[in-house]
Amino acid sequence: MRAAGVNPADWRIRSGTVRRLGEPPLTLGLDLSGTVEATGAGVTRFRPGDAVFGNAFPPRGSHAEYTVVPQEWLAAVPPGLDHVHAAALPTAGLTAWQPLTRAAPVDAGRRVLVHAAAGGVGHLAVQIAKARGAHVIGTARAAKHAFLRDLGADELVDYTRTDFAEAVRDVDVVFDPIAGDYGPRSLDTLTPGGTLVDVRGSGPDRTAVRELARARGLRFVEFGFTPSGTDLADLAALVTGGALRVAVEEVLPLEQAARAHELSESGRATGKIVLMP
C-alpha cells in the first residue's frame, strides 16, 4: 500500500451503521493505490512491481500496509497520476462514472443536477457529466463555487441561501449523494421522465421517495458501485486526457485515521481525504 482513500462508508462501517460486512475486528478502507508485491495462481493482468489502483473491502481493507484483492478490481496507475491522487479515485470515481454512463446515462444536451457538488463523489460527477457534454448544475456553499466553476460547472446554487427545489427546473438527471429529504425535493426539479439517482448507500428509508417518483412518472434509482478495473481504466483515460482531476483536501498518516474519519464525517471536505500507510 502506498496510499489509501477515505470514504463516508469507512466511518459508517466503523460506527456500526453498515453491518453487512460482519462483526469487528475489521480492517477498514475501500480505496487503494500501491505496488503489486506478489500474485496468486491464475493472475495474468499484473505482475510484481506494477503500480495499481482500485478497491479493497473489509475485513481486508486498504487502511493497512498490505491487502489482497482480485485482479479484476484493479487498473494500472496511469502516467502522471501519483499514488495519493490514484488512491482518492476508485470508490468516488466509480460511484460517479457507473450511474452517469449506465443507470442514467448523460450526454450532450442533458441537464444534470449534482448535489454536494464539491464533495468527494460530487466533484467527480460534475467533471464526468461535463466530459460527456451535459449542462451541469451543482449545489454547494458559496465558498466552494469558484472551485466548481474551475471544474466546469455551468450553474451553482448556494443551498444555505436558496432552496434548490424552487430555483432549479427541467433537469434530466439528479445525482444525489445525500438522500433524506433531498430525494423528494429533488423530484420537483426533474423534467417529465427524468431520473433521480441516489448514490448515498446505507441511510434513510427510500420508500416514500420511490413511491412519489412512481406516481409522477419519474425514475428513481438506488445505486451502489461495483468494483471494476475496466471502468477504472476508463476513468484513468479521462485523467490522462485532462478531462478529470481528483481534488485532495488532506493527506494524513495512517496513525491519524481517527482524524480522517472526523473530517469525512463533518461533510465539509472539498474533494477527498487520503491516508499514507
Task: Please name the defining characteristics of this protein.
277 residues; alpha/beta; Quinone Oxidoreductase, Chain A, domain 1; Rossmann fold; 2 domains; three-stranded mixed β-sheet; globular
Describe the structure.
With 277 residues, the chain is α/β, with parallel strands linked by helices. The chain folds into 2 domains: 4-89 and 246-276, Alpha-Beta Complex (Quinone Oxidoreductase, Chain A, domain 1); 91-222, Rossmann fold (3-Layer(aba) Sandwich). It has 10 helices and 12 strands. It has helices spanning 8-15, 83-87, 90-103, 122-131, 145-151, 164-167, 182-187, 207-216, 229-240, 257-266; strands at 4-6, 31-35, 51-55, 74-76, 111-114, 135-139, 155-157, 171-176, 190-198, 219-222, 248-253, 272-276.
* Number of domain modules: 2
> Structural class per helix/strand content?
alpha/beta
* CATH class placement of the largest domain: Alpha Beta
Portion in strands: 15-25%
Shape: globular
Quick overview:
The chain has 277 residues and is of the alpha/beta class. It is built from ten helices and twelve strands.
Topology:
Layout: E1 4-6, H1 8-15, E2 31-35, E3 51-55, E4 74-76, H2 83-87, H3 90-103, E5 111-114, H4 122-131, E6 135-139, H5 145-151, E7 155-157, H6 164-167, E8 171-176, H7 182-187, E9 190-198, H8 207-216, E10 219-222, H9 229-240, E11 248-253, H10 257-266, E12 272-276
Helix pairs in contact: 3-4
